[in-house]
Amino acid sequence: MVDKIKTGIPGLDDMMDGGLPKGSTTVISGPPGIGKSNLAMQYIYNGVAQYDDPGIYITVEDTVGDVENYAAGFGWNVREYEDAGKIAILGREIFEGTDMDLGMDFGILRDVIKETQASRMVLDSVTLFNYLFKEEASRRLHMLRFLEMMRKNNCTTIMTAELPESFPKLKYGSEHFLSDGLVIMFWSRYRATNERCIWVVKIRGTKIISDIRPLTITSGGVSVSPKEVPFTLLKREDAKG
Ligand SMILES: Nc1ncnc2c1ncn2[C@@H]1O[C@H](COP(=O)(O)OP(=O)(O)OP(=O)(O)O)[C@@H](O)[C@H]1O
Ligand SMILES: [Mg+2]
Question: What pLDDT is attached to residue 167?
Answer without folding.
Answer: 85
